[in-house]
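User: My advisor, Dr. K., asked me to get a structural model of this assembly before our group meeting. I'm new to this, so sorry if the format is off. These are the inputs:
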Amino acid sequence: MFPFLTILVAVPVVGAVLLWALPASARGRAREIALAITGLELALFAVMALQFDKSDAGAFQFSEVYSWIPQIGTSWALGVNGLGLLMIALSVILTPLAILAAWREDKDESRRRHYLALILLSLAFMVGIFAARDVFLFYVLFEAMLIPLYFMIGGFGGAQRRYAAVKFLLYSLAGGLIMLVAVVALYFVGPGGDQAFLTDNLSGLDLPVTTERLMFLAFFLAFAIKAPMVPVHTWLPDVAETARAGTTALLVAVLDKIGTFGMITLCLTLFPEAARWAAPVIIVLAVISVVYGALLAIGQRNMFRLVAFTSVSHFGVMVLGIFAFQVTSMEGAAFYMFNHGLSTGALFLLVGFLVSRYGTADVDAYGGLQRVMPVFAGTFLVVGLSALSLPGLSPFVSEIMVFIGAYPVAAAAVIVSAVSVVLAALYILLTYKSVFTGPVRADLGEARELTLRERLVTWPLVGLMLLLGFLPGIAIDYLSAPAADAVAQVTIEEAGA
Amino acid sequence: MNFVTPEIAWAPLAPILIVLVAASAAILIEAFIRTPATRRLVQLAVALVALVAALGTAAVQWALLDGAGTVVMDGMITVDRQALAWQSMILVFGVLGMILFAARTRAGEESFTPLGSTAPGSIEETLARRKGLQLTEVFPLGLFAVGGMMLFTSVTDYIFLFVALEVFSLPLYILVALSRRRRLLSQEGALKYFLLGAFSSAIFLFGAALVYGATAHTSYSAVAYAMELGGANDALLVTGAVMIVAGLLFKIGAVPFHSWTPDAYQGAPTPVTAFMAAATKAAATAALLRIMYTSLHPLEWELSWLFWAAAIASMALGTVLALVQTDVKRMLAYSSVAHAGFILVAFAGLEGEALSALPFYLLAYGLASIGAFAVVTQVRERTEDGSVGAEAVRLGQWAGLGKRSPLLAGAMSLFLLSFAGIPLTAGFVGKFEAFSAAIAGGGWPLVLIAVVASAVAAFFYVRLVVLMFLTDVPEGAEDDIAVEDSPLVRLVIWVTAVATVLLGILPAGALGLLEDAAVLLVSLGA
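Assistant: The format is fine. Below is the predicted structure of the whole assembly, which you can bring to the meeting.
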């Protein structure tokens, strides 16, 4: 069988190396080359997605297993089910858009080339992580991904970028290293041998209770930092404020999903008993994230920080959906992971466009823009409404699925979280009001309508949200089986016990 | 009394003998070739040929080894795959080190003083420099150090271990003192290294004497056998064992026996630091492994507190002190102390895993060390008259190196990431292996501490990366730093960088070889 997944990982790596090794004469074309590579990636992905057997979306397809380091039991094992497929879709859709969004960011040719190469490199890691079927491989990619991200945050962006990059790195590294202890321990509690780390070989282990709980916590901490959940979320606003909009869009829209993705594919699969044990506390933390994130978002004057805090809130909803252990809520959470990527990605990029025009992300510096740039304002409003889960746009569907699904088991949590929708209306609409309505601020300078390039970046995302808002079945067909499997893994054992 | 000459099987000793004979020949070369330039070339050629030949011989022996290995000289030396693996590693470090020894700046300046016996800043020193004298004794000294270290890894007798210890230590003491620039620092470092080294040798020897007093044996296996038979004086035995281990911990550079590292690392000519950091640690770890697994293992319980305490203290103190350093070489020195702690973590429980984990760890660490110090030799200060001066070791001077020389800064970052144990570098695989061994031996609390220490350590490694890539060259300081471009150093950096990446991505081959080497031959012949 054609090794689609390995090629999807390899193409961006080759692209990045190509960009770095570009002869001087071709360096001016770096953007076009990078875009072409992501286009190729998208095309390859489309071909693969068409061959994906939707009727069997719970099974891992396009599986590849090659021996990698047999001495420590790890393999180059890739495979995707419906969830992985959708997350890879998100990655390959957003990356070309982020490249397009950064089209005019760098005056300096060599800086631009480095930035694009780093984006391609992180695309390879994203695809690899969403497809990894070996815990060791997952860990390696999970940690190694920090390097390109670190340089993307620290090398390109605002004045505080070095501080933000170090904070991001230390948070992630701390989580990752604690996870490493659990990864090493997995080898000893698992079956061992040449393929000790294959996820399939590690599920259904009958672990001693304490061991399982400790290992679950180690994994969960790493994912909670990545996702980010209260109280380990504080790196995100700092990064969002100072990093480039495209970087943040990719980071929040795709990379942070690795946290929730890991919770579903690793935490629940490998440690079902511990997941049940920890679920009540995690749900409480999730609800705190939902409300606290929303409240802080209302208080922000910097739009990047604002969007970052809304994400903390939204991630809370996803985690609630996952740890309610209901099929509908799990489906909703998985779907929300995709939708949130579209919605928040678009929001970050739009704020970035605003900042590229006027040089500030401060809400108070703006006013009345809808008169001078109506298209921009309209796009912003639609994207903003998607963030507050307006019916008709896809985030609504997923949020309602989480709430309905989780209600029977966690009614209080759902009721409190539902309040967040009201808060979301506040932070989105208040922001819209002060930026786009009222009299035009005289000191703002010349207005520039959403350009063709910027429309190309944002409108596809809006279109996708509308499409999935009205026809959510397109995506949910891919997610039902994986969600049901994940829930079954946690609950069957409970029924047996 | 009849003295019976022992039967010596020379063949298994061939790699060591080649190096030691070449070292002796190199001393004669010193006497007979008068022109400095020719002498330097001949010495370099002799050293490299000898080391490569020894490496080849070791490889042949590896292939031809029947059974677990060979015992030579009545059980004084054991040649098994474990020993051959360490010896080959030290030879590789030796080759890389010798190439660095020979490197010169664009202006033709070596790393070593023209005449070691002159007082720093004296007229004699200036005269010696003007006359173009060159100190080519560094090559035989280096060869003796390599030979001694190789011996150190395969000796199985406490008294002979002491001999090997001195054979490789004495040349190192001298080498540390021979820096061309900042000679006072160099001599200070050497003196501290020598005094503390002599002290630790004495402690080791005293320990060996106590063990002999308790068991009436000096051979590793006989000591273990005597202990298992029982009846030995426990107080004597444990005191002796602690002192033996302490002597070796000194060479590994673990807390509380680490205080020589920052001064010696900083003062020594950087090529010597590179070689010493990689090879000494490897040799000492190898010897400690052999002793703990084949001789003192009955005392595992009694000694475990020492290993745990030294490991925790090294990791904690090494990382914390590295955080506050402002000198690149001192920072790397304290990081080496932290790494000594990580090495000791793998000793928890004395599991078989450590026998393949530690060689890999030390290989990864050694390659990154040599590479990192090789980079240090290339970043130079520019003096007032525009010529190239001493190495720029203040952290602030590294700001914006990524702009001056992206390849050099990139390589340095790679080595730092390998030190930090970031995946896809050799350092990560090494760390993973070491932690596996510790967890297998029940040392998970140690691993947790190690993990926290790694996270803290990542901070200062990354700080240097930030300085190189994300900080601009300070205003007005554009011409303060000169980046050298010595082809020899560049070769070393390339080799170590490529090896670091390869061992990080495709370590299966090396790990497979080392798993074959995870056997220690124990004989009760003596």
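One thing worth pointing out at the meeting: The first helix of chain A runs from residue 4 to 20.

User: Perfect, thanks a lot.
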